[in-house]
Amino acid sequence: MIYTVSDLIKKYGSRTVLDIPYLEVEKEQIYALLGANGAGKTTLLNILGLLEAPTAGQIQYCSRPVNYSESGLQSLRKEVVLVDQHPILFTTTVFKNLEFGLKIRKINKKERYRIIDESLDLVGMREFSSAPAQHLSGGETQRVAIARALALSPKVFLCDEPTSSVDVENQNIIITILRRINEVKKISVLFTTHDRSQAARLAHHTIVLNHGRLVPTMYENIFRGVLQTDPFGQPQCAIQDKIHLSLSGDQIKDNRKAVSVFIDPEMIRPVKLPGDQATQNELRGRVVQMIEENGNVRVVVDAGIWVALLISKKRYQEIRFMVGETIDLYIPPEAVHLI
């Protein structure tokens, strides 16, 4: 394990922002850290990044307890890097931004140049080497910040909302970069996000926080399934041999049978009112939990599989179901994504 967290408590004054009895993070894996604003994601990231000490509990890094004294952290901080949501670059060239940390570590000039070129190549920014960093776009700045951190040869790469403030094109590029960092460099990656579909596409594992506490990752809507065709020859996915969901045919690009699927919680529709019945992709289940999240309501339903949906407060007011009540869910084919 790269991290083992035991009985972690973090308080600011009298307010407890993290209460995590136990958490393990495996080496060379990608983890997505999900949760609403105020759930404790950034605080946990800062603690794992060795920037903050917990109020109580123990963090082990590579099976050794972390000593949060300055002398104890000095060597560990060479192995763990954190890229902020809004990274700040020095007002100099892209090249010199990457070179600064290598000079501090007394890397010789020839090796510095090799590392910088390799890091910029990996993020697709080699041609910007001589460009003034302050003139870059938001997406380019994020990519240079990733390259600058990568140049330090870390074992752990932490990113706080790496795609939240960049355009769609750079979002896809950054996702690809993080995947390559993990696959090519064998670096453990942990990133925070609000985007569950992004987490499903990129992460091997997902950690979900709610008010500083871990909640079961079954809320992710990620399932193993088998591709089949319905009686009309249309593609569908069978989950646990009892739930059959139609999906868009344009997703079928190969001959796979066993697949992983992600069901977008924002596209699932609760069906309860008369005349609002779905004709396909309908599940019936019992409401087991409801949580307010970013002005919406996240509902978890036990329908043979645990399915989470995210609905507006207005929609919830219209149908007003309660925990323990049975409801129907309609899952549009376009909500079912192969991953």
Description:
Helices cover 24% and strands 35% of the residues. It has 339 residues and is an alpha+beta fold. The chain folds into two domains: 3-215, Rossmann fold; 218-338, OB fold (Dihydrolipoamide Acetyltransferase, E2P) (Beta Barrel). It is globular and about 65 Å long.
Instruction: Give me the strand/helix succession.
Output: EEEHEEHEHHHEHEHEEEEEEEEEEHEE
CATH architecture of the largest domain: 3-Layer(aba) Sandwich
Widest β-sheet, arrangement of strands: 6-7-8-3-9-10
Strand content: 25-35%
Structural class: alpha+beta
Low-confidence stretches: 273-278
Shape: globular
Q: What is the level 1 CATH name of the largest domain?
A: Alpha Beta
Number of helical elements: 8
The oligomeric state is single chain
Overall pLDDT, averaged?
Answer: 88
End-to-end Cα distance: 26 Å
Radius of gyration: 23 Å
**CATH topology of the largest domain, which one?**
Rossmann fold
Largest sheet: 6 strands, mixed
CATH superfamily of the largest domain: P-loop containing nucleotide triphosphate hydrolases
